[in-house]
Amino acid sequence: MAAPSSLPAISYTFAPFNPSNQTLKTRNTLTARSSLTSQSLTSAKSTLLNLISDQNRGISTQSDPQKLLQITEAIDTIASINRDQVTTDSSLSGTWRLLWTTEKEQLFIVENAGFFGTKAGDVLQVIDVEKGSLNNVITFPPDGVFFVRSDVEIASSQRVNFRFTSAVLRGKGWEFPLPPFGQGWFESVYLDEEIRIVKDIRGDYLVVDRAPYSWTK
Question: CB of 160 within 8 A of CB of 188?
Fold first, then answer.
């Protein structure tokens, strides 16, 4: 009778669990994701700025549905990538200058200022988070200005509620008060040291940059 054949010995070697290795892997994964998100935002921001660069603050876009679609899709992409950013802290404060918008009232004034013997200068949003104030401003150099005062309240990490309190049309040596009108909210879906991107209660879009000066009444 044949002797039973012997089986080869199998050796199992287990590496001891090292929590620090797992922490390092997790940290590396998060860093990689953060890097990819940053690259995506940089690319999306560049695309958006290129799209609006020749749109005359939004006036040209009004007659170009295809361009409008491209711009709003670029903004929606940025909003989706950047949904976790807090944009309602002190970084929101400052003098912001209009680059592009879909707000018809602002665009009407900018486009038709010549009928009143003047031209529109900078269009601004002046925000002070600490004081809870917002001024929407349209300048008519050298001395004219139309501004609407608002109270603001932080509603969430990206949303601000506002309520108009007064409006003033001012020229050299004269001032004409107008009644306050309206309230609503806006969301700053992206904010950095250069630009801010906004969507509001009416479905309008706004892209502004940090003005190289501070506007005061």
Answer: yes
For residue range 173-203, what is the model confidence (pLDDT) as tens digits? 999 999 878 999 999 999 999 999 999 999 9
Question: Phi/psi at 214 (nearest 5 deg)?
Answer: -110, 125
CA 121 to chain centre: 22
Structure tokens at 186: 């806006």
CA angle 49, 159, 35 (to 5 degrees): 50
- Burial profile 76-87: b = 16 or more Cβ within 10 angstroms, e = fewer: ebbbebbeebeb
Tokens of 152: 């603001």
| Distance from C-alpha of 200 to C-alpha of 210, rounded to nearest angstrom | 19
Structure pTM? 0.82
Residues 6+ apart with CB under 8 A from 15: none
